[in-house]
Amino acid sequence: MRSLFRRKASPLGDAIRLLALGLSGLLVGSPSADGGEVNLSRPAIRSHQLTLTLSPATHELMATDRMDLIRSAAGSGSLTFSLHPQLRVRQVVQLGDRPSPLVVRTEAAQDPETNEPVQWLTLQLPDEAGPTLILEWTYEGMIKDPPKEARHLRFVTPSETAGHIGPEGVYLSGETHWYPDLAGALPTFRVSVTTPKGWEAVTHGRQLSHREDQGGVTAEWDVATRTEALTLVANRFVTTRRDWKGIELVTYLFPDDAALANEYLDASARYLEVYTSRLGPYPFPKFAVVENFFASGLGMPSFTLLGSGVIKRHYTQPYALGHEIVHSWIGNSVFNDPAQGNWVEGLTTYLANYYYEELTGTPEQAKEQRRMMLRGYAVYVRSEEDYPVAAFKRKVDQKDNAIGYQKAAMVFHMLRREIGDGPFWTGVRNLVASYTGVHAAWNEVEQAFARAAGKDLRDFFTQWVQQAGAPTVRATHVVQDDVAGSPGEQGTTRLRVTLTQPSPAFRLSVPVTLTLADQSRQSTRVRLESTGQTFELSLPSRAVSLSVDPDFELFRRIPRTDLPPMLNLYVTDPTRVVVLPSGGTVEGQRPFAELAEVIESRSPGTVIQTDQAPVPVKGSLLLLGGPGGNHVVRPILEHCGSQVTVDRDRFTVGGPTYAQPGMALLVTCRRPDSPGSMATFFYGLSPQALSKVARLLFFYGWQSYVVFHDGAVIA
Description:
23% of the residues lie in helices and 32% in strands. With 715 residues, it is an alpha+beta fold. 41% of the residues are buried.
């Protein structure tokens, strides 16, 4: 599965930028160059010292939090913190020579980003309180939000939960609000967590101690690097450790998957070797792969949390484990402020999902990655729904993925081509070095690369980051003439080509490749800055073909009519119809009925009908069943031509014929009577062949056809 199941585990409330960060990267309460403290315009938390006991059987948490706090320079008389709505504060005490309890005013509300319930706790501080103070919170309660499966045809986000403590596992993130917090805080942590015997708790940073007694298992963790939000998980893990150049590599896996530990440790070391050379020293004391009790692919500072299904599928690819390791620098060390747009996912996707393939694979593999980025945008982003990369905050659906991950990754690829490899990698390293521990927005990203390149990049970032859309470039008029050479010289050919793009015009450097009569290739770049320009090229012989951007180096919109037929074009058609068979056995109809039920619940607007109803003249069709049970199949199947034939006991596609009972076919063809729409067929030679494939059908959305045997892809 190429798409990443990821939701950034960081606080999604009203994040704020700190005052006067500049390029110095000064932190809240950190020493300035002359040894003094940074003046603050807002209050901030320097550190938490958390002591907590988790009771999975009863979903309960009991905690104390000794909080080191800096008041604002204005000396505000009150402070407002967030906390989970089911956690009850027993008391808050200001520690000092004479500890004094503080009055807490509670207000129920909703997190403005997640719409999840939250409570605001307002403390009235005494007038004589100094600029720094220590607060000790004592609180307890129940956190019970069992993960729910995300409702998408193709799973692109993790199971949905704001946090859960239960017998199946513990997951507490920034969205849980499981400790009192101030918006925009970047504190450090010391955590002591007690769990039942046989359980292990994992969080950011380094584990200092681990002991077991009659009360359970207690682990102490030191989180010395500042973080946006602390995530803590716990479960019954088998732990495997390894040292890599002073970094602790760890796996926390369930007993059934413990044998996979070395595979994940080997892959972690391999990626760290590559990316420390590109990005600088690894910023944390450990990297851990932690197995999760619900579907997830989450990256936190110093560990990644992967669902059991993902772990079992050997999720060590660059777009998977590699992506999470790159987040160690980009997103978990240099922070992203969602209010200012999210550049983190685009750069991480470029460095992990794409660049690792370029570095270790073949040019064709890298080209295929670029092609798929353009295809994702073409399929999932319609012009009327497009928005600028700068407006992307987080992935909710495939449209967001295509813009915030894939288009943004291509923007960084074009930036690398624009300024060159040396300045590009210098810019990446300077970005990491300058903004570790603080927030950086698109403006800081632009300035880091502009300084490395020694040139103004405002026009580039305005066009590709601030502006929505993408060009569609075509060669609309090509003429070539033979030109006689001087006496004794070989003749040449003059070629004139007109390139066009829709309005508003992008400023583009367009790669053009020509194949000459002797099959040699000649490549060049032409500068296109208007909706239509004619260029003249001199060639040593006549050209037999011309390709515009054949290697997909330029981010552009591929028209849907130029894409091969595929199931994903059905999924993204505004008019979608599922046609169920009215004939056949009850057993044979059951897989289709179950699939239709899933589509109806997860794809609002899809029309479900039987083959007895008239076929709509417009829109894309998903035809379930063969000609023996679905009367619509045979006439619509003619759209596929002679390459596809379907009978009761066999089918032919792409040349071979398949006739075994375990065979199933998914094939998509164009509807010539409805331009831009598709006709997709899903057919099996037995109910068993269908049932093994139906629930995963939409994972095969990029292929024109797929042949399955007993649920496995064979063609």
